[in-house]
Amino acid sequence: MKVRTAVISLFVLAVLLSVLTACTSDEENSAICAETLILLMEDVSPDDWFYRYVKAGLRFGLITADEINNQRFEPDSVVTQGEFITMLGRLHEYGHGTIGTPDDGPVYERYVEWALERGIIHRYRYWELMPRAPITREQKAVIVHRYIEAYDFWDYLLHDQMLTMAYFWDADEMSYWAQGPVERLRLRLLVFGGYRQYFKPHIPANRAVAIAILSGVGSAVYDLVHPLRRY
Asked: Exposed, middle or buried, 168 (CB in 10 Å: 0-12/13-18/19+)?
């Protein structure tokens, strides 16, 4: 019985992988690919608060098939600044085409260059450490805010859910440069995940939170307002 179960499991996995080989960045196939990819993830279930965001993230290409070969999403894993900017760049590619030219260097390099050119990130004293450094929740929010500003997407953002608080109870703990962007995102795109009235600005963002806010931006811009419009 165990052998038969194993054979069936391998067959199902083979079928799923064969579908994945046909997955492309074409929007026509992206929804089907997302439905297939999420089935491979052992640590994501429909009961998770981030489930729909992961599915949307797969659709927008924020996560690729070769990045889940171990069949795990690892929602609690800390995201580095280089990883977050890569996911943001992939989201932008969904509506704009390929950013830069892929080469043999680290995958994040062309996305970092794009983000620099657009003013989404800035060089700073410890720049060489940036790609590998964990990204905090307030840094993540500021980067998303700058992206929305750079491409003037504010008119296309809607509330992701009902606003449940007048402000974050730990707003006074935020860095001064993050207070404005976090407040504006709170009012227009409430996708922070996990802490209710608390923002927790200085703790590292995990994959679930990162995918939530980015797929929230993608869904708002590309689906909720102008589903047939591409920028």
From this structure: buried
- Closest by Cα among 62, 61, 21, 19 to 39: 19
64-74 tens-digit pLDDT: 766 665 678 89
Angle between helices 51-59 and 27-39 (to 10 degrees): 140
**Domains in the chain: how many in total?**
1
Please report, as a single letter, which amino acid is at residue 28.
E
Give per-residue pLDDT as tens, 36-48: 778 778 899 999 9
- Distance of alpha carbon 154 from alpha carbon 192, whole angstroms: 17
pTM equals 0.80
Q: Write out the residue range of the structural domain in which residue 101 sits.
A: 1-231
* HSE-CB of 101 using CA atoms within 13 angstroms: 1
Cβ count within 10 A of residue 161: 9
